[in-house]
Amino acid sequence: MKRALLLAALLLATAQTAAPTERPLRDAALEARAQSLMHTLRCVVCQQASIADSSADMAGEMRGLVRARIAAGDRPEQVRAFLVSRYGPWIDFRPPVTAETYLLWAAPVLVLGIGALLARPLFRRRPA
Amino acid sequence: MSAAASTPKARLARFALVAPLALFAAFLIVVGFGLRHDPHREVRSALIGQPAPVFDLPGYDATHPGLATSDLAHGTVTVVNIFASWCLPCRVEAPQLAQLARQGVVVHGLAIKDSPDGLATFFRNYGNPYRRIGRDDDGRAQIGWGSSGVPETFVIDGKGIVRHQHIGEIRADDVPGLLSEIAKAARQ
């Protein structure tokens, strides 16, 4: 009995914390455009997640704004520019390519190169 | 052994043993420092020095007027307080807002995702310092201000230019600073 009550309470709790229903745009192409833009905008509340991945109320409002403006015919870059004009460039959640991040972008190639150098002796033909 | 240690193969073997350990140690150091560092930062509005955003919001009932951009450029400094009846820190700052209003500062409110009933209860308990209140039911106007939470307070000069943003509740010791920002905006 106790267990059943607990389970019911838990189910109720999850039902209440679930994100409010958000309606995707009817036009699938516009919705896809809105979605991909949402993945590149920072949630100003949680900050380390995009508004697409955040459950904060504020992120929900921003998703609503993105959908409304895309549906109204705005290009994704116009919507991004609007939000940058209000919150500053930090809201852009795309990883920036700057002098500070060159090393980060080059890291995969560098690591692969180091690995190849390290592994080279193993592939060398043994002297007969 | 000492002879073998100098062959390339033995050196590679030793490197293969030490390198992962060194990398792991470096990783631990980075994580250790990362855990001490709070990455959360204050997101300030980009509107400081810019005209107030364009909005036109309804009031919270028939007798109270709403709030629009045109209410912010009447030649006097205005304060726009972004609040909500469901917001706990907003209760903390209520006496400070009342003090500003008593001193003659024009304080307007932007009620975020609120209801007339909620607002009426809030005003009954904590007072209503607002000249005008705009109901921002979907939070769109708040985004227009570049605000990332409640409460936040903006100081707008007489020409409608945003001059100052206060993030979080206004505490008693924030009032002198805010008054000096209001005085500064009045000289603009």
How is this structure best summarized?
Chain A has 5 helices and no strands.
What's the SSE pattern of chain A?
HHHHH
Please report the number of helical segments of chain B: 5
> Radius of gyration of chain A from the CA trace?
23 Å
Give the helix proportion of chain B (percent range).
25-40%
Task: Describe the protein's architecture and organization.
The complex is a heterodimer of chains A (128) and B (188). With 128 residues, chain A is an all-alpha fold. Chain A has 5 helices and no strands. In chain A, 18% of the residues are buried. Chain B has 188 residues and is an alpha/beta fold. Helix content of chain B is 39%, strand content 17%. Chain B has helices spanning 8-36, 88-102, 116-126, 140-144, 175-187, and strands at 56-57, 67-68, 78-83, 106-112, 133-136, 152-156, 162-167. In chain B, the strands form 2 sheets. Chain B has a 5-stranded mixed β-sheet with strand order 5-4-3-6-7. In chain B, strands 1-2 form a two-stranded antiparallel ribbon. In chain B, β6 and β7 (162-167) form a beta hairpin. Chain B is elongated and about 90 Å long. The chains are: A mainly alpha (128), B alpha/beta (188).
Question: What key attributes describe this structure?
Answer:
heterodimer; A: 128 residues; mainly alpha; 59% helix; B: 188 residues; five-stranded mixed β-sheet; two-stranded antiparallel ribbon; 7 strands
